[in-house]
Structures are given as C-alpha cells and as structure tokens.
Design brief:
single chain; 311 residues; alpha/beta; D-Maltodextrin-Binding Protein, domain 2; 11 helices
C-alpha cells in the first residue's frame, strides 16, 4: 500500500509539473513605473509570456531601496507563480539596515544587464560641461540638490562616490525610484540627478536635459559625445545591474522551465534592441554565476556602505 501511495504521488507530481504553468504569473518590480527596472521588467516579461503561454502580471512595490518588494518576493510561495526583478540593491539592503536578506536567500534566475550612472542637469542650466558643474559645486558646498532613487540606493551611492572623487558636497534628495527623481529635475525642483542614461534618455532627446558625464569605464554608444569621469581624471565608476529571481525553494523542473523561457526572451531581437536603444549593456549570467556575482557584490557593499554612509 505504501509503495502504491508513493507511486501515485510521483505520478501526480509529474502531471502537475507537466501542466506548469497553467495560470498567470505575478512579477514584482521594486521601483516606480517608468524607470530602468520597470521598463526592463515589462519588456522581458511581455516576450516571456508568449513563450510560456500564460499572462505575466507586473506589479510595482516601492520603498526602502527595493527592500519592501524583495521581501515580498522572498516570502512568497515558491511555486513558480511569483517572481521578480532584483537590482543591485539586492546586494546592498542588508548593509543599509533595510532588510535581513541577501542574494543567498533567493533562487536567482539570471542577470540581464549593467548600466552606469549619468550626472544629468537641465539643458537650460548654466553648466555645459562636468568641469563647470564641479567647480560650481565646490564654490557653493551644500547647496546643490541631487536626486536619487532612495536612501542608500545605487544612485545614492553614485552621488556619494561623485562627492568623494571630486571633493564636493551635495544635498541628496531621495525618491521612490529614478523616474520620480527625473520628473523632479525636469520640473525644476532639484538641480541634478545621478541615475542611468536610460532614465534620462527621453529628456535628453526632447532637449530638456543634458548629461554632463558618465560614471563608467568607457563611453556609452548611446551618448558617444558624453565623457566619462575617469577620462577626465576622476577615479570613479558606479554601475547598476539587474536580473530575475524567485523565492528560494522552487522545484528544479519549474526553475528550468522559467530559466529556459526567460533566456529565450533575453536573446530575442526585440529585447536586445531594447537594451541597445536605452544604453544598457547586455550582461547575461545564468543562475549559478549570477548568484556568485551577487554574493561577491554583497560582500563588497557590506564593507563599503557603512564607510560611505558614516555608519
């Protein structure tokens, strides 16, 4: 009788897996609509749902540099029907004191991209070059407001790194994501932002914003005329990255179905064009390599962030 029960359960499990997925998948995004995380998530899920043959519903949960959304993901049922976008802040929130988890507490699916910080101001501002901006901030310490995507977010760390490299002092203004920060810049409520080129691209193209410099090792093909801080003699490079994750404990067969589907979506011409058009560097890593990378970043930020924030 016991053998029959075990056999029945195995058959039932096989049938259930064969049916997966058979209902909509919820996809959690940790930032406000309109930013790089949101656009990347919605683009890749729109492709993946065609492969998986079920709807993927995106939901935005903001706050605490993504910690609230990632906690929701971490504590969701590991049945393959809840997944989400994880940014570089996945490796930062514990050091910031916002959460008690790290990369090791999720089933990481894949890394998608990396993208640098861009020092951006309004196009009608007095600064035409990054050197003019640096000289002004030095002459007016503690008066220039710079928006970021939340206290301790990667774009906040970018602004702190900018201060350290240039010997300047800024006023840091937090928002629930990069998109609201950019909107505040365009509305004249803050002086600058240190967010990604993706998030200021439309403003630059409309003539409302100007990127003064990139905080990367190389110039962006999207904005080839914009210099990097490194080439101007400032030793600073700050980049965000993003990927996909599941709650820890997902069945290996379900994990493989999702990994295969999202890899196909990642490799699609549509998604690769999306990355290129927005100045993001394609940076695929499979789940295992992504985990190794994210944990190495976690170890780095556990040491860096307390020093950067004076903790």
């Amino acid at each position: 009788m016991k053998k029959l029960l075990v056999a029945f359960l195995l058959i039932l499990a096989t049938l259930l897996l064969a049916a997966y997925p058979d209902k909509p998948i919820t996809f959690i995004i940790q930032a406000a609509p309109g930013g790089a995380s949101d656009m990347t998530s919605r683009t890749i899920t729109s492709i993946a749902q065609e492969i998986l043959k079920v709807p993927i519903t995106c939901t935005n949960i903001t706050g605490a540099s993504g910690a609230i959304a990632m906690k929701k993901l971490q504590t969701s049922k590991p049945d393959g029907y809840t997944m989400g976008y994880v940014p570089v802040e996945l490796s930062m929130v514990k050091a910031l004191g916002y959460a008690d988890f790290g990369p090791q507490d999720f089933d990481l699916l894949m890394r998608i991209m990396v993208i640098p910080a861009a020092v951006t101001v309004r196009a009608n501002s007095q600064w035409k070059t990054i050197q003019e901006f640096i000289e002004y901030v030095k002459a007016h310490p503690g008066t220039v407001t710079v928006g970021n995507s939340g206290p301790g977010s990667i774009w906040h760390i970018a602004a702190l790194s900018f201060e350290k490299a240039t010997g300047t002092k800024l006023i840091h203004v937090p928002f629930d994501g990069a998109a609201p920060a950019v909107a505040a810049l365009m509305g004249g409520h803050i002086t600058a932002v240190t967010v990604s080129p993706t998030e200021v691209k439309s403003g630059v193209e409309s003539g409302q914003l100007r990127i003064l410099a990139l905080m990367s090792d190389e110039r962006s093909p999207l904005f080839p005329d914009v210099p990097t801080l490194k080439e101007l003699g400032y030793d600073v490079s700050v980049a965000a990255w993003g990927g996909l994750a599941l709650p820890k404990g997902v069945d290996p067969e379900v994990y493989k179905i999702l990994a295969d589907a999202f890899k196909k979506a990642y490799e699609s011409e549509t998604f690769q064009k999306f990355l290129s058009d927005r100045g993001m560097t394609p940076a695929y890593l499979d789940g295992e390599k992504f985990k190794e990378f994210a944990i190495s970043q976690y170890n780095m930020f556990m040491e860096l962030i307390p020093k950067a924030l004076g903790k």
